[in-house]
Amino acid sequence: MSAASGAQKATSKFFDRVFSKESLRYLCSTHFWGPVSNFGIPLAAIVDLQNKPPDMISGPMTGSLIVYSLVFMRYSLAIKPQNYLLFGCHFVNEIAQLGQGYRYVRYTYGDEGKRAQEVSPDQKKVGN
């Protein structure tokens, strides 16, 4: 058996597996597309970790998304068949939302927020 023949068999086996009825059924199901479309939430949260100023973070919404992701992480493992893609999506979202929550708490209740709320003497003159 030549190397080209072995590569051809491996390629054929790969395509047979990828385009099998089971694989195509999975790729055309909501079991696949639901989590894929849901990945927009954690991706936006990850981008916001670096780009959004902490004074624009909504504490109640971040708390809701933390609970939401915990619930759906559990749900993704409770259903049959288990949906590991959905679990991964909500796991990533949980980490990103916890990061946002940390930034919110640090800004709202920590020194960073107090410094931002202090008004400089120049700003007081302009306002009067």
UniProtKB/TrEMBL annotation:
GO terms for biological process: pyruvate import into mitochondria. Signal peptide: none annotated. GO terms for cellular component: mitochondrial pyruvate carrier complex; peroxisome. It is a multi-pass membrane protein. The chain crosses the membrane at residues 57-77. The keyword Mitochondrion applies. Keywords: Membrane, Mitochondrion, Mitochondrion inner membrane, Transmembrane, Transmembrane helix, Transport. One of its GO terms (molecular function) is pyruvate transmembrane transporter activity. Its main location: mitochondrion. It comes from the Eukaryota. Pfam families: MPC. The keyword Mitochondrion applies. InterPro entries: MPC (IPR005336). It is found in: Mitochondrion inner membrane. Belongs to the mitochondrial pyruvate carrier (MPC) (TC 2.A.105) family. Mediates the uptake of pyruvate into mitochondria. This is Mitochondrial pyruvate carrier. It comes from Komagataella phaffii (strain GS115 / ATCC 20864).
